[in-house]
């Protein structure tokens, strides 16, 4: 049954807000004059956040040559922008519902989210984005589908129908969401990101990962759109046998043809080459798993 905008707002209102320390981090890091000392003080005032930040910075994802034992050293080694994105990841994975009765497989959900994040980061690197800014791309990919979790949690019966129809008729989930609910997960996901006061560019990348109608679409949004399509293609590739290779190439060609012109221009290479270019993707995803293990770290 379709829902109305007021019901959507009610769901968003039920999602917990971030702890004060995370809001202060987001506020501080919006300024070009952000002081590393002030940032360190905010994080250290929150012992749980401190522990989680240090766990992430010392993970295989960052691959530092020596263990970091203080927040001050963490800021020095990975930079202010990366610490901001680490805080966003910690806060988000902690605030999202962990289970649902709709049948949304959370392991598959996070696996896909990690893949999109890693691919987006690799795309950014390939496009010459500075190392310090690449964290924006990873986190945007990690969070792009959070609206699915909210629908599955708050509308379990309706969302179960969405998942079943999408699977049985081989339709994209966001299209079935529109048909049955009246909204798709990108819309509610963006609303929650706004409630959390996440950076505007991150909010827009969540809102537009299935559309390029926005005239002011940023490279970040285009990267998330492309990375999402690539991840879906690679998921099909993993499920297929070697005998399905011609079908996979045809699928890649179909996806290439359906990509919006803005994405094609930004991407500048076809999806059929994706396997050759992302040879270390599984290893990179394994390193990034720490980002979704933090909610139980306290």
Structure description:
This protein is mainly alpha-helical and 298 residues long. The protein has a single domain, classed as Hypothetical protein af1432 (Orthogonal Bundle). It contains 18 helices and no strands. Helix 5 crosses helix 6 and helix 7 packs across helix 18. The longest helix is centred in the middle third of the chain and has 21 residues.
Summarize the helices and strands and which ones pair or pack.
Elements: H1 5-14, H2 20-29, H3 36-44, H4 47-57, H5 71-78, H6 80-95, H7 106-126, H8 134-143, H9 146-154, H10 156-168, H11 173-181, H12 185-195, H13 200-207, H14 219-239, H15 245-258, H16 261-267, H17 274-277, H18 281-288
Helix pairs in contact: 1-12, 2-3, 2-6, 3-5, 4-6, 5-6, 6-8, 7-8, 7-14, 7-18, 8-13, 8-14, 9-10, 9-12, 10-11, 12-13, 13-14, 14-15, 14-16
Please sum up the structure shown.
With 298 residues, this protein is an all-alpha fold. Helix content is 67%, strand content 0%.
Mean pLDDT across all amino acids: 88
Based on secondary structure, the structural category is mainly alpha
The CATH topology comes to Hypothetical protein af1432
| Run of helices and strands | HHHHHHHHHHHHHHHHHH
Given the C-alpha coordinates, what overall shape results? globular
* Rg of Cα set: 19 Å
Notable characteristics:
298 residues, mainly alpha, Hypothetical protein af1432, globular
